[in-house]
TrEMBL record:
GO terms for biological process: base-excision repair; mismatch repair. Keywords: 4Fe-4S, DNA damage, DNA repair, Glycosidase, Hydrolase, Iron, Iron-sulfur, Metal-binding. Pfam families: HhH-GPD (PF00730), NUDIX_4 (PF14815). This is Adenine DNA glycosylase. The keyword DNA repair applies. Adenine glycosylase active on G-A mispairs. MutY also corrects error-prone DNA synthesis past GO lesions which are due to the oxidatively damaged form of guanine: 7,8-dihydro-8-oxoguanine (8-oxo-dGTP). It catalyses: Hydrolyzes free adenine bases from 7,8-dihydro-8-oxoguanine:adenine mismatched double-stranded DNA, leaving an apurinic site. Gene3D superfamilies: Helix-hairpin-Helix base-excision DNA repair enzymes (C-terminal), Hypothetical protein, domain 2. GO terms for molecular function: 4 iron, 4 sulfur cluster binding; 8-oxo-7,8-dihydroguanine DNA N-glycosylase activity; adenine/guanine mispair binding; metal ion binding; oxidized purine DNA binding; purine-specific mismatch base pair DNA N-glycosylase activity. Belongs to the Nth/MutY family. InterPro entries: DNA_glycosylase, Endonuclease-III-like_CS2, Endonuclease3_FeS-loop_motif, HhH-GPD_domain, HhH_base_excis_C, MIG/MutY, MutY_C, NUDIX_hydrolase-like_dom_sf. Binds 1 [4Fe-4S] cluster. Residues 42-189 form the HhH-GPD domain.
Amino acid sequence: MPARPADKLLSHYDANARALPWRNPPGSPPMDPYRVWLSEVMLQQTTVATVKPRFRRFVERWPTVEALAAAPAEDVMQEWAGLGYYARARNLHACAKSVAATGGFPRTADGLRKLPGIGDYTAAAVASIAFGEGTAAVDTNVERVIARLHGIDRPVAEARPDIRRLAAAMWPRDRAGDFAQALMDLGATICRPKAPLCGECPLAADCVAFASGTPEAFPGPKAKAIRPHRHGEAWWIERDGAIWLVRRPEKGILGGMAALPGPEWATAAPTGRAIAIVSHGFTHFTLDLHVTHRAAPPDSEGWWQGLATISEAGLPTLYARAIEAALAAREARADAA
Ligand code: SF4
């Protein structure tokens, strides 16, 4: 009997699995659920290369879910700085507290899904990788692989129910966790969005997209969303080599993160002269942040942060770039004078 595509992929994984700090080698007992869960949350919208050193640092600082639960929220947000999508960090902390209070992670996707910040994909990934439950963990990479394998040329948003059904049908119950990780590796390294390496793929003989000669054409392209544009103003208030920083409100974008003070972001550009302007793309809108000088003393709760220690403030990328741009502009002005 010819080998099933799932078996071919597992054999390929046994020989080629990527060594990652949150993963044990194929066939060995699974990594502890804390590390599996943490890696899955960190990897949402963030690349493996970026996550690797941050993951190591995180588990060194908080080696167990109980240790993370006991950490002050500000320390967790600070450790997360630069990884983006800060609601993840808030949910991560809330989830750790809930898990620590109940004595451990639920062992099923249904149980995991009830925890803060754990959606369908993360629940399925943790249940299959840490506990061996045979639930299909289907993220964007897996959707692409399955769509190509079956020659689905509709956009993923339209074909999603079919893709999920097909993924569930091929998911082996005996090595569910290894299979989840094998599909992740295939999607990341071989069945890439652009220029898939079909010549190296263990599924080539079974793949409809490969047989068509244009594998990249599968699945169909998604409709382009037009993101609205906003403007923000960030006040530069400086005294004795320090600038005034505030903590953003807990709820909303960059909630709980360190920031330059300023009014709410709006659709109209601020009228004051900008020292520097940085552009940033969020999921649902783009932003131009105008850094403007303000001589008035701070009227908000915050703290003076020395410019020499600005890297220790736990600033998210947007504000770190804004400060960098303002300092660069000042240097350029000084050079020109
Ligand atoms: S053969 Fe090519 S398109 Fe098909 S699954 Fe493999 S890498 Fe993807």
